[in-house]
């Protein structure tokens, strides 16, 4: 079993790391930290914040950067209860929202938060080589954009291939419907441009685990576009690509009960 898949089994299916009884571990929550330095505008000060939840007096733990959903137009950061008390850190990120900002500002914010994690998590005890990026719905879209289009992290001096793994839940792999609306394109018309994860498929991406719900219950076309995305990644030679369809479950947070038993 490859190390990435093994770690995901450890993280997301309740098997404790190195025999750690994580429920007896003490955790610290720091809220509303900024992930931008220097001069920022009022809206950045309001939205570009994150909460950090991490185990006290533990070293070299993995970290999940969690990006919330909400169609790129709403939503707020929170630490998913399913990721708590697992011997890991969770960084829950807010980002700026449409229409107050335009594309690609929300992608840039997600990348800035991931870059902050690479540069700072070691000071909390975390291992910067074990950073997972994850999110649901719009957060899954941002997860894939940051992980596949290397330009966003490169601005911060970070190689996107250093991400340990990507874990998008029910994300769009074509251009997001909010981005299409900004382009005056109908929501029913698929677009694959530079704002689509599918546009950036390449070999040797970080391991990626794609979750979608039941084809009859999911957002329209979401299962099919993820399936095509996974297939193209495999065609290009990526070995660690998994697409898991959750029968009986709908979109986004409804899937948590299946993923985190």
What does this structure look like?
This protein is α/β, with parallel strands linked by helices and 261 residues long. Helices cover 27% and strands 21% of the residues. The protein has eight helices and eight strands. It has an eight-stranded mixed β-sheet with strand order 1-2-4-3-5-6-7-8. Helix 3 (105-120) packs across helix 4. Residues 13-19 have low confidence and may be disordered.
List the helices and strands and how they pair.
Elements (H helix, E strand, L loop, with lengths): L2 H10 L14 E8 L7 H6 L1 E7 L5 E7 L21 E5 L11 H16 L5 E11 L1 H11 L2 H4 L10 E5 L7 H6 L25 E6 L8 H14 L5 E6 L9 H4 L2
Parallel strand pairs: 3-4, 3-5, 5-6, 6-7, 7-8
Antiparallel strand pairs: 1-2, 2-4
Helix pairs in contact: 3-4
Attribute tags:
alpha/beta; 261 residues; 8 helices; 8-stranded mixed sheet; 8 strands
Q: So what's the overall shape?
A: globular
What's the count of strands?
Answer: 8
If strands are numbered along the chain, what order do they take across the biggest sheet? 1-2-4-3-5-6-7-8
Classify the secondary structure makeup into a structural class: alpha/beta
Terminus-to-terminus distance:
22 Å
Give the SSE order as H and E letters: HEHEEEHEHHEHEHEH
User: What proportion of the residues is helical, as a percent range?
Assistant: 25-40%
Rg for CA atoms: 17 Å
Count of alpha and pi helical runs = 8
β content, as a range? 15-25%
Main β-sheet: number of strands, strand sense, barrel status? 8 strands, mixed
